[in-house]
Amino acid sequence: MASASFANESQKIENAVVNSNGSGLALIPWDLFIGGMNSFTVGADWIFGNFNILYASTSQVNEVPKHSWVWTLRTQALWAPTFGAYLQPTIQYMFFGGPLTMFKVSVGPEIGYKRKTGFEYGGSARVGAFMDLLNFEMGYLVNSKRTYMNIILNLPSGLGIWV
User: Fold this and answer.
1) Residue from 41, 103, 38, 100 nearest 67 by CA
2) Strands 134-141 and 118-129: what pairing?
3) E strands, the chain, where?
4) Among residues 69, 56, 133, 70, which one has the least CA distance to residue 100?
5) What is the pLDDT, as a whole number, of residue 15?
6) DSSP-assigned letter for residue 4
7) Which CATH class is domain 27-161?
8) pLDDT tens digit string along 108-161?
9) Domain boundaries in the chain?
10) Is a pLDDT exceeding 70 seen at residue 18?
11) What is the CA radius of gyration of the chain?
């Protein structure tokens, strides 16, 4: 009489789902954001599958790492005080200490086009807290000679790639 064991099947299916989520070069939205202070910004951070994870403090696929380094590609529209569209590769350090203690620091250059000055470049840094829902951003645009600051509402969608 033949018998079958399904004890490990659920784990195999879970690993297959997790490993297939974000594999390859698929463009995946990491988060969406909107905010303002002395300017207004809206946009998204993008990742390319699992290639964006530079370092994770755990090797388990279904475990959230306590420390991680990730790079993302940010696309944003920024009104400071005129409209500009920017592309910004960023490096992000994330600390996850529990359900409500996630902290993020992100920094990167930005390049784009601004309506009045044409070609524009600069850089910005962001600090995120409270599950990365609230970010403070400070940046500088070189051609405009403009410093901008924003309080950003961040809607993280990419946190599920580790769970």
Assistant:
1) 103
2) antiparallel
3) 27-37, 40-48, 53-56, 67-79, 83-96, 102-114, 118-129, 134-141, 146-156
4) 133
5) 46
6) -
7) mainly beta
8) 999 999 998 899 999 999 998 887 789 999 999 999 899 999 999 988 776 544
9) 27-161
10) no
11) 19
